[in-house]
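stage 2 :: seqdesign
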């Protein structure tokens, strides 16, 4: 894995932590510039994740003899165990301390849909969120994996177009015909395609440049993000995210050899999954004991960081290896030590 990409994954995960801190503790009401950036712009961490996902999946499958079935098995083995673990943790928390999660419910059909990455209303007529709230992004991720697995049947040079066609049919035509939930018509899905395009550029060696150019790209992207515009999310945040990703990839020589950044990237998925229950419990304790929100934030950051480290090493890695053996597949394309 490129260390620059690992660093971005970590940054994106912690940006989302900041967004949810502002949501839970301040209801998005910002009192200073940092709070404003977290509350109003921190959600771009998801967009960076999606661009990186398309980038990494394309590169990890290039020149590999992967069948759609084998690809999906490995993606399920990598994504599902940790997600299920933290969803089950949410079930336990909601059942034992419902006052901490007053808006959650444990109807069997809703829980099952949450576990199976099926978009379903958290309450009738309300937003589409699974029990573990951040799982809404994984609904998109799993859809992308499923569609990209079909694209693996095509030659590498055609996979972008196959994936784009399938995304258009499923995410735009499907909802219009009532065949697919309107949840998937979000233009954020286009960011996966941006990642694939970046992967194609990288494969062709077009991501090398003098340092000043990618640095300028990052400055331009951050400026565009800060000022914003009344345009679709894929343009407002997706394009700047793609520029940031490709710029950081071009700066890879400056990131190489950093074990710390690699570790942060390795733990980013667990950070993403674990932070919501930690912040929710932290908010409840802060209200109960009248603790300063920022003092509680420091406690939550420590708990999230330590918990994510343990989760990566003893939950993600162990279950991934165990499932590989159980499924009888050897994954040389999509592992934490992969080339790309």
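stage 2 :: out
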């Amino acid at each position: 894995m490129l260390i620059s990409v690992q660093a971005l994954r970590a940054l994106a995960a912690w940006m989302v932590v900041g967004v949810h801190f502002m949501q839970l503790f301040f209801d998005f009401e910002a009192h200073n510039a940092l709070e404003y950036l977290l509350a109003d712009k921190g959600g771009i961490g998801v967009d960076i994740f999606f661009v990186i996902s398309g980038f990494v999946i394309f590169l990890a499958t290039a020149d590999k003899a992967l069948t759609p079935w084998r690809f999906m098995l490995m993606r399920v083995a990598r994504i599902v165990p940790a997600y299920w673990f933290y969803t089950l943790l949410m079930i336990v928390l909601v059942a034992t301390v419902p006052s901490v999660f007053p808006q959650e419910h444990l109807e069997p059909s809703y829980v099952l849909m949450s576990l199976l990455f099926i978009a379903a209303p958290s309450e009738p007529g309300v937003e589409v969120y699974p029990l573990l709230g951040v799982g809404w992004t994984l609904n998109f991720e799993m859809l992308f994996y499923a569609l990209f697995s079909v694209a693996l049947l095509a030659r590498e040079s055609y996979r972008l177009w196959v994936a784009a066609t399938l995304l258009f049919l499923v995410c735009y035509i499907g909802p219009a015909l009532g065949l697919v939930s309107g949840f998937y018509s979000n233009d954020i899905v286009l960011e996966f395609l941006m990642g694939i395009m970046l992967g194609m550029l990288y494969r062709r060696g077009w991501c090398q440049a003098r340092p000043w150019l990618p640095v300028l790209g990052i400055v331009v992207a951050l400026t565009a993000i800060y000022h914003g515009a009344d345009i679709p999310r894929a343009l407002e945040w997706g394009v700047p995210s793609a520029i940031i990703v490709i710029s950081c990839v071009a700066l890879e020589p400056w990131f190489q050899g950093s074990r710390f950044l690699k570790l942060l990237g390795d733990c980013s998925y667990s950070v993403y999954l674990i932070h919501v229950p930690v912040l929710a419990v932290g908010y409840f304790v802060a209200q109960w004991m009248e603790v300063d929100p920022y003092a509680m934030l420091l406690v939550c950051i420590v708990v999230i960081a330590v918990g994510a480290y343990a989760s990566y090493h003893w939950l993600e890695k162990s279950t991934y290896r165990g499932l590989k053996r159980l499924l009888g597949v050897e994954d040389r394309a999509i592992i934490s030590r992969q080339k790309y």
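stage 3 :: structure notes
- DSSP finds 14 helices and no strands in the chain.
- The radius of gyration is 20 Å.
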